[in-house]
Write a structure and sequence with these properties.
alpha/beta, Spore Coat Polysaccharide Biosynthesis Protein SpsA, Chain A, about 30% helix, 7 strands, seven-stranded mixed β-sheet
């Protein structure tokens, strides 16, 4: 079965993306950082071991955007909170292993993605923990239906996001891979983990 790597991206518009970072460095600079971070990440992760798919927001503008590479398939993120959107993405892909990542993590490498997919060979789910208690990657083997309770009750943007999400997968064999830092504020632009 084909492996799918979904990269969640927003149109890099000032005031619409990386707003916490924008409060520190300015909204235009934050949008510029995000656009160039995503471009670098997509070049690096375009790998024959998996199919990269862009999950875009806002839906209509993202599907037609000229910002992102044309050769990568796109799907709309749709409405709802982060859990609603990721759950829909996991349920909507063809059968086989799927990993979802955020695009604001400079430390992601092809090796870290390969480790996540390898973990799905022996586990039902995999997480890439973030330094702040959240996570930069979630993946499911998807040999069974995606649990309907997945992501319910998760306290997003808190230090509890990873532990809350893991609780929505009772009985699942869960692996964790590299601990990385996502960029939310100017202090996150310092030394990488």
């Amino acid at each position: 079965m084909r492996r799918y790597l979904i990269v969640m991206v927003k149109e890099p518009r000032p005031g619409r993306v990386k707003t916490r970072l924008g409060r520190d460095i300015g909204m235009v600079a934050a949008a510029w950082w995000f656009r160039h971070q995503v471009a670098r990440l997509l070049r690096q992760l375009d790998d024959p071991r998996w199919q990269v798919v862009l999950a875009v927001a806002p839906d209509h503008a993202g599907l037609k955007s000229g910002v992102w590479p044309d050769h990568l398939p796109r799907v709309a993120q749709g409405p709802g909170d982060l859990g609603d959107r990721m759950g829909r993405l996991l349920r909507g892909m063809p059968p086989g292993p799927v990993c979802i990542i955020g695009a604001d993590v400079p430390g992601i490498t092809p090796a870290s993605i390969a480790r996540a997919f390898a973990a799905l060979g022996r586990c039902d789910a995999v997480f890439g923990p973030a330094v702040d208690g959240g996570y930069w990657l979630v993946g499911l083997k998807r040999v069974q239906a995606v649990p309907s309770a997945l992501f319910h009750g998760v306290r997003w943007s808190t230090e509890h996001a990873l532990s809350d999400t893991m609780k929505t997968l009772p009985g699942a064999r869960i692996a964790q891979v590299d601990i990385l830092r996502d960029v939310d504020t100017v202090s996150d632009l310092g030394p990488r983990q």
